[in-house]
Hints:
Number of domains: 3
Distance between the termini: 147 Å
Structural class: alpha+beta
Low-confidence stretches: none
Order of helices and strands: HHHEEEEEE
Number of helices: 3
Strand order of the largest sheet: 1-4-5
Strand content: 15-25%
Shape: rod-shaped
Helix content: 55-70%
Amino acid sequence: MTEEMKTEAFEEEVKAEETAEAAAEEATETENAEAAEEKTEDVSENTAAEEENEEKDNEKYMRLLAEFQNFKKRAVKEKSDIHAYANEKIVGELLPVLDNFERALDADAASDPEAYAKGMSLIFEQMMTALVKAGLEEIEALGTEFDPNKHSAVMTQASAQYESGHVSTVLQKGYTLNKKVIRPAMVAVAE
């Protein structure tokens, strides 16, 4: 083989290598482009999935908020109903007392004063029974030590019967309703 042939063969080999390298570079570029497209698709899919999850979370939040608002409305309505009908039971128990008072007022007290007094006493007992059922209790004051939480002292007086600081006279009874003082007893305290 001559030199020229060797050179041509060498040049052909170089061209073949260059073509192979160019083909390899092109294949790599194609692979990189495809990988970039896949990444873009993955990012798009991830973004879409994230948006969908966020939308679901927002929907859950909105439902929860609506449920809470409905609960608040129901609670307000129930509370107003409780206030509106809280006295229904006690009023129902006092209606017979009212009826008896009307009957007593229609009766002639002058014709039989003893029967009239007995009837009033029975009506009073009936009313106290209804109030006690509702939780009313009289505050025991006479002879007890003065307690500013239960008693309202309006005066002091000398007393041989009671020790100093004890209630010597009850001027007006006090009451508790379900253990809460609704009216303190108005009392005089021994000096």
